[in-house]
Amino acid sequence: MEFLERGEIPDMLAFNAVKQAVDFVLRWFCIGLLAIMTVLVVYQVFARQVLNSPSPITEIASQYMFVWLVMLGGAFMFGAREHISITLLKDKYSPFVNMLVEILIHVVLFAFALAITINGGVRFTITQLGTLDAALQIPMGLINMVVPICGALLMFYSVYNVCLAVQEYKTGKLTSA
């Protein structure tokens, strides 16, 4: 019963473990993308400046990887609660109202992620599976797949952050200014 002494909710322990696993995979995937992008861009500059023969494949591949990196990195930062947020008004309220505002924000974001990035993203990705990228000769649907993936991550992090806000309120960690 050590978790009760720390004020933790038992279900949150499992949720924290899942979040840590998702964070770990996402972090290392982004690091890998950045490493590959760096190699591709260095080669692109070398090929253009030294060999006088630019490679369109490395240029396009690094552009697509950059899009994936930005999308997945943004989802990761949201999950880490390191994104930009303006808390001037929210922090002036009582802890209970603060928790309700936090929940409302995440419910709205969850609905946005479901409607736009999941519903729209999946439909768009499916329609693009038959279209090949001119340089890489891979289906554009595979490239656009990052949109619904990020939507799923945003939805997961929204649910996690709602549970975390409730836990912080119950344990007294969610305070007002």
Topology:
Layout: H1 2-5, H2 10-49, H3 56-79, H4 95-127, H5 140-144, H6 146-171
Helix pairs in contact: 2-3, 2-6, 3-6, 4-6
Describe the structure.
By secondary structure, the protein is mainly α. It has one domain (7-171). 75% of the residues lie in helices and 0% in strands. The protein is built from six helices and no strands. It has helices at residues 2-5, 10-49, 56-79, 95-127, 140-144, 146-171. α4 runs antiparallel to α6 (146-171). It is elongated, with a radius of gyration of 21 Å. The chain starts with a helix and ends in a 6-residue tail after the last helix. The relative contact order is 0.14.
Question: How much β-strand is present in the residues?
Answer: under 5%
Detail the poorly predicted runs: none
Number of helical segments? 6
Average residue-wise pLDDT = 85
What share of the residues lie within helices? over 70%
Radius of gyration: 21 Å
Largest β-sheet summary: none
Classify the secondary structure makeup into a structural class: mainly alpha
What is the helix/strand order? HHHHHH
Tally of DSSP β-strands: 0
Q: Judging from the principal axes of the Cα atoms, what is the shape?
A: elongated
Number of domains: 1
Ends: how far apart?
Answer: 32 Å
